Amino acid sequence: MMEKVFVFDHPLIQHKLTYIRDKNTGAKEFRELVEEVSMLMAYEVTRNLPLEEVEIQTPLAKAKSKVIAGKKVGIVPILRAGLGMVNGMLQLLPTARVGHIGLYRDPDTLNPVDYYCKLPQDIEERELIILDPMLATGGSASAAISFIKERGGKNIKLMCLIAAPEGIERVCRDHPDVEIYTAAVDEKLNSHGYIVPGLGDAGDRMYGTK
User: Fold this and answer.
1) What is the pLDDT of residues 138-188, one digit of tens each?
2) Buried b (16+ CB within 10 A) or exposed e, 98-128
3) Alpha-carbon distance 155 to 122, whole Å?
4) Residues labelled as active-site residues
5) Which of 3, 27, 69, 117 shows the greatest Cβ crowding within 10 Å of its Cβ?
């Protein structure tokens, strides 16, 4: 199962994640840190993008160099907390298309329902990176992946700041083809479905709500 899970131990990521976790970090700094960590994580998430060789003219001579080989990337934040990770990704991938997906749980069936889903038209041609700060039970992430697959998405990755073992297990079971990228795997979920030690509710801390 864990062969599809990549945990980033880079010192800068771990340093900033500490302050993201700290309950004394205010909303403004929290948003800035989430954006910065997302940008740092983008380096590794895009490590396997294909390259091609081109010829350019430097100020001194002609040279052969490499560029990304036309690979199209799509970024899909899960509303609302996933929005805080988008700008960090776009700083490194400015031409990426951004989709959005919003989910809620039906109170009767308890099944996830997508109340909003807007994706790039050429979704089947893109490498898609789903963004959500927390991978807790895995229910929302698994549902989001399913909804995207139903609309033609094929090459999908999931990127989160913190994951619980239960969420990893759920996504790996439901979608064994999807790679998971995270900055930390925490201990467990509590009885309310929150990651422990975690960072609390990412959306509330990001936008100053309760």
Assistant:
1) 999 999 999 999 999 999 999 999 999 999 999 999 999 999 999 999 999
2) bbbbbbeeeeeeeebebeebebbeebeebbb
3) 12
4) 105, 109, 201, 204
5) 117
